[in-house]
# Entry
Amino acid sequence: MKILTFPGGVHSPTSKEVTRDKKIEPAKIPERVIIPLLQHTGAPCEALVSKGDGVSVGQKIGEAKAFVSSSVHATISGEVTEIKPLPYPLGSETASVVIQSDGKDEWLESGESIDWKALSPEEIREIIREAGIVGLGGAAFPTHVKLSPPKGKKINAYILNGAECEPYLTCDYRLMVEKPKEILEGFRILMAAVGVKNGYIGIEDNKPEAISIMEKELKSQSDIQMEVLKTKYPQGGEKQLIKAILRREVPSGGLPFDVGVLVSNVGTAFSCWEAVVLGKPLVERVITVAGSGIKEPKNLRVRIGTPISDIIKECGGFNGQPGKIIIGGPMMGLAQWTSDVPVIKGTSGILVFPQEEVLEEISLPCIKCGNCVDSCPVNLMPTLIESYAEKGRLKEAESLGALDCIECGVCSYVCPSKRPLVQMIKYAKFEIARNNKGK
# Structure
């Protein structure tokens, strides 16, 4: 089978061997959860509960009023003790619902399993919307919105992302190994929601067991095609997957539907299966807990809203003095200043590194080596964009394609001068977007 790839990128150490063979374990039911009303791309949802209310697992506690938004649900049964701004992984603080467990873990009745093939695309999208499903690969874009492309945008291909290119993370891999039937049925549900007949699942070649299992499940079926991808970061990026598998190039400023494609993560497909077939909203997800600062690395199925301090404790606690805690992978994840933040829908992993492994390197002047240009997976010139951003020349930064940056971190990774390239480009994108919004 031909191994596919894309131009640019880097061959970084994958560091997956520690958790690759660790089966998914159910995490302990937390005594307390913190559920942010904004844990997705788009507008925050509005609280449907008040302090003192009793709730059941699966009960909607936050309503999505805007189209680009996603509802949230109670993930344990108990009492609402607070609704106030609290720290969360994506920034400073956001309005959150705090629930204290009653120890019963009582679920809201979800009804019987249904035959999704009898549902219309509109009915499937509505179930997914009500279940609060978002992209679980990291961006957390509301799935019902992705399944509703603008009129005139004909979708003729759907890609299921099983690349999991971030180092250390193995939660998607374990899902593919342990739940292949459910993932593929969830993918067919997604395909049915947009009327697509051609599906592709892309998996990197460093995951032979997942490839073998998926190929076995797809045997004698023609609606979904297996594609083996070269192990290279960021192979899991939407644009990189589309380029590698379909040889289509998303235009500057464009989105996958501009070239007739949609892309979803394997975890998203699994959650859609749970929502549509079992009537279960998104109340838990699989995450990887790893890094040399963790005593017992694991793959855990965790309730949304669980404080990461609880999860670290369940994994044996810290191994040495913690120097850095990262939510997500080491390339695109966000370092945290406290372990009191909760797991949210987009949390794919918790990485901990001891103090002695955290280096504070000095940024030196650019030596014009061109490594960042050669490695950029979207063909940008990171060093020039950074230079313009640093000087506040945002128009020039925008003209060089700053807004097309996918923030993968490859440029910073390969820079011998340790320039803060991706950080400055992110700053430029923020300022450009803010200025354009005011026009």
Notes: The chain has a mean pLDDT of 95.
